[in-house]
Amino acid sequence: MASIIDENQNCHPLDKVAKQIEGAFDKLVQLVLSRKISLLTELNDYRNEYDKFTADMLQTEKNLEVMKQKTADTLQTINISEIEEKLHKLTLSTTSFELDFQINSHIIEQEISKLGKIIKASELIVPNYSVMKMPVVAVGKEGSGRDEFDGPRGIAYEEGSGLIFVSDNSSIKIFTSSGEFVNDFGSNELVNPWGIALNESYIYVSDRNQCSVLKYQRFNYKFLMKTGQEGSGKGEFHFPMQIAVRTDGCLFIPENKNSRISILDSELNFERFISHESVIKPVDIKFAKDKMFVLCYNIPEKVHQFNFTGDYLKCVIAYGGGATLFFCLDVANNILISNWTTNTILIYNQAGVLVCTIGKVGHGKGEFSRPYGIVTTSNARLIVSSNNNNYGLQIF
Question: Does the residue 5 lie in any domain?
Answer without folding.
Answer: no
